[in-house]
Design brief:
- Helices cover about 45% and strands about 15% of the residues.
- The protein contains twelve helices and eleven strands.
- Strands 1, 2, 4, 7, 10 and 11 form a six-stranded antiparallel β-sheet that branches.
Length: about 300
C-alpha cells in the first residue's frame, strides 16, 4: 500500500452527508466549533465562508471547502449578511418553517462531515490548515470530484434502500480526493503531504510504509529514492522536518499502537511486524515514546481508559 493510502486508512474515518440545503438571499448560517471535519460543496449560486482569523473564501459553483479541525465558521450569501446559529436553522427546518426561503437569488449546497474514529492520528492531520478550498475548475482531479458529488446528489434525490451507506462511502472518497487535490494544488508548505510533490522522497515513504518490518538503513532508503545519502537526508528533512529514520520510528510506533488495539497478537509478534526483532528493545522504545509499555497501553485502551 502506498504511504498516503496507508496513512489515510489508519485514520479509520467515516463520512456523513447532509441533505441538500437551499437558501434564498439574504442568508447566513453560523456553524459552531465541534470535533468533526466539515465539508461543503457549492452546487448553485455563490457563497462565502468566513473563519475567524482567516481570509474570507468566496466559493464558486463546483468548489469544495474542507474545515479539517471543526473550526467555527459562517457560510454567507454575501459577506455583509447576518447569520443565525446552525441549530436554529435546523430546528426551523424540522418544524416545517424553513428559514431563508423566498423569491430572491437561490444558493444550493451539499454538506457533510468526517469523523476520525481512531484514537491514533498521523501528525499530518494536525498540520492541516484551518480551511482548505478546492477549485475544481483548476484541478487535475476535477472530474473525479465532480462525479463523486454528482453521485451524492443522485443518492440524495433517490432516497433508495441502502443510500445512507452509499453516501457515507462517497463522503469518504471525497475526503481522499480533497486531500489529493490539496497536494496537487501546491498549497502545502511543508510536512508529510508536501513530500508527495517530490517523486523521489515519496518513493522512499512508500517503501517504508509497504514494509515497516524491514530493517531499513539510510543507504537503502536513499537508494530507493535514487539519491545520495547526504542529499536524501537533507531533502527529506526539508520537506518533513524530520530525519528519515526518525519518521520511520514514529510510523512504526503508530502502527504498533493500532495493532495493539485491533488484534490479539502477542507483543513479540507485533514488535516483529513493525521492525523490531527484540521484544525488550521494542518495549523500551515504546515506553520512551508513549510513556508506558505496550501491554499496559493495550490494557488501558481496551478498558476504555
Amino acid at each position: 500500500m502506498d504511504a498516503l493510502s496507508d496513512v489515510l486508512d489508519s485514520l479509520k474515518f467515516k463520512g456523513v452527508v447532509y441533505q441538500k440545503i437551499l437558501f434564498t438571499a439574504p442568508w447566513g448560517v453560523a456553524i459552531a466549533q465541534d470535533q468533526y471535519s466539515q465539508f461543503w460543496r457549492l452546487l448553485k449560486g455563490t457563497c462565502y465562508v468566513r473563519i475567524p482569523g482567516e481570509e474570507m473564501i468566496k466559493m464558486n459553483e463546483g468548489d469544495f471547502v474542507l474545515v479539517p479541525h471543526g473550526a467555527a465558521h459562517r457560510i454567507l450569501g454575501h459577506p455583509d449578511n447576518v447569520s443565525v446559529p446552525a441549530a436554529q436553522y435546523v430546528k426551523a427546518l424540522q418544524c416545517g418553517q424553513p428559514l431563508f426561503r423566498g423569491d430572491d437569488e437561490e444558493t444550493l449546497l451539499i454538506g457533510g462531515h468526517f469523523e476520525f474514529t481512531s484514537p491514533i492520528l498521523h501528525p499530518f492531520v494536525a498540520a492541516l490548515p484551518k480551511v482548505i478550498r478546492i477549485n475544481t475548475h483548476q484541478n487535475e482531479i476535477r472530474l473525479w470530484l465532480e462525479q463523486a458529488a454528482a453521485f451524492m446528489n443522485d443518492e440524495l434525490k433517490a432516497n433508495k434502500a441502502g443510500n445512507q451507506l452509499i453516501l457515507a462511502r462517497l463522503a469518504e472518497v471525497v475526503f481522499i480526493l480533497i486531500i489529493r487535490a490539496y497536494i496537487e494544488q501546491g498549497d502545502v508548505a511543508h510536512g508529510f503531504l508536501r513530500a508527495f510533490k517530490n517523486p523521489k522522497i515519496s518513493a522512499s515513504l512508500n517503501a517504508m510504509h509497504s514494509a515497516p518490518e524491514k530493517d531499513w538503513t539510510l543507504s537503502q532508503l536513499a537508494s530507493v529514492a535514487g539519491m545520495s545519502r547526504s542529499l536524501y537526508c537533507k531533502e527529506f528533512k526539508t520537506l518533513l522536518e524530520d530525519t528519515p529514520l526518525a519518521y520511520l520510528t514514529e510510523w512504526r510506533i503508530l502502527k504498533a499502537r493500532e495493532l495493539l488495539l485491533e488484534n490479539k497478537e502477542n507483543i513479540n509478534e507485533i514488535a516483529e511486524k513493525v521492525g523490531y526483532r527484540s521484544e525488550a528493545a521494542f518495549n523500551r522504545l515504546f515506553k520512551s515514546k508513549i510513556g508506558e509499555t505496550p501491554s499496559s497501553y493495550r490494557r488501558r485502551l481496551l478498558a476504555g481508559g
